[in-house]
UniProtKB/TrEMBL annotation:
GO terms for biological process: carbohydrate biosynthetic process. GO terms for molecular function: N-acylneuraminate-9-phosphate synthase activity. It holds the Pfam family NeuB. Residues 1-42 form the PseI/NeuA/B-like domain. It comes from marine metagenome. This is PseI/NeuA/B-like domain-containing protein.
Length: 61
């Protein structure tokens, strides 16, 4: 992204640029997204273990 001190300044890029507050918000949202994506390692959470064991039981039909 482009960064500007004031979006009302003259120039073709100013209107499409972010002011410092916008950069701060963009950065905060990127950090939140990084946390939401996790570390990429797949595994079973402790809260999921009981359901996993119930679903693994075999039915005798």
């Amino acid at each position: 992204r482009h960064i500007t001190l004031d979006r009302s300044m003259w120039g073709s890029d100013q209107a499409a640029s972010l002011e410092p507050a916008g950069v701060k918000l963009l950065t905060a949202n990127i950090r939140r997204l990084e946390k939401a994506l996790g570390n990429g390692i797949k595994g079973v959470l402790d809260a999921e273990r009981s359901a996993m064991h119930k679903l693994r039981r075999r039915s005798d039909f």
